[in-house]
Amino acid sequence: MTVIDVHAHVFPRLTRAEGRVLTDAGEPWLRVNGDGTGMMMSGDEEYRPVTEALWDPARRVADMDALGVDVQAVSSTPLMFGYDADPARAADWCDLVNDRILAYCAAAPDRLLPLCQVPLQDTGRACEVATRALAAGHRGVHIGNHVGDRNLDDPGIVEFLAHCARIGLPVLAHPWDMMAAERMRGHMLPWLVGMPAETQLGILGLMLSGAFERIPASLRLCFCHGGGSFAFLLGRADNAWRNRDIVRADSPRPPSEYTDRFHVDSAVFDPRALRLLVEVMGADRVMLGTDYPFPLGEKEPGAVVRACPELDDADRAKVLGGNAAAFFAPAPAPVGAVGGGA
Question: Where in this chain does the record put each Amidohydrolase-related domain (predicted)?
Fold first, then answer.
């Protein structure tokens, strides 16, 4: 069966000078040490040590071969989003990053699917960059789950998601810039606590604000990290919707009736958690995701999927690759568009 990883990151080789496209401080950029290691940099600050798989497509494909992965959807590292920057500079930066991701994936076009990024802080520019990237060959767009204090149900972000639905561009939503960092000191608690909470916030925000009622149902949207804490706490959200008018004020349906509006990846690391995730979302809505090549990712892609005894062979095939193949399939051109029609 085909194995497709929908959640895998890249940081193309971008110099400090190129980082100045985004900000005068020259951030972010990649310091390559020449020995297979490097450092993600934010201006002068060392952000995270990394290895060559993050910027070398040959190493990535070799890893994929060794790990039994046929295809990866390749998305930028969230440090690269640039949502705090001037929108015009951020648009130029995204064009630069997107060109580099295309070049990276061109090394193995049958194995690597490029996902673009956009200046999400400016809806008009984000739509323009997304449209341009789709025409250039990108297969999806990678966004953060918020822009400052604007969550995914912000009108401007909802407008962008609706635009992606109209042009047939799949969306991968990733948690980042986690909440309450001052209370999560040490032990990678922002990643262990903040990321699941950020993802649940994004999902429930779209549901309870009524945003899903305003976004075309054709939108292909996937949340990373198994949807965070959403599946485990869905019963709590439904109970609140039924019993408190303030919860259901803007949402005509309970949260559990919107699970057919998005996908999640499988990065939950425990067969018991995956069983619950599939029960909540349905086997058609879960896709393999590993968070490659970072240390908190799944080291044996698909191991948890294969170890989940409640999945039959047909559902296992869907999660490992079948669902992703459909998710990233090129959308038909709109009727009346150039090259479209009968």
Answer: 4-328
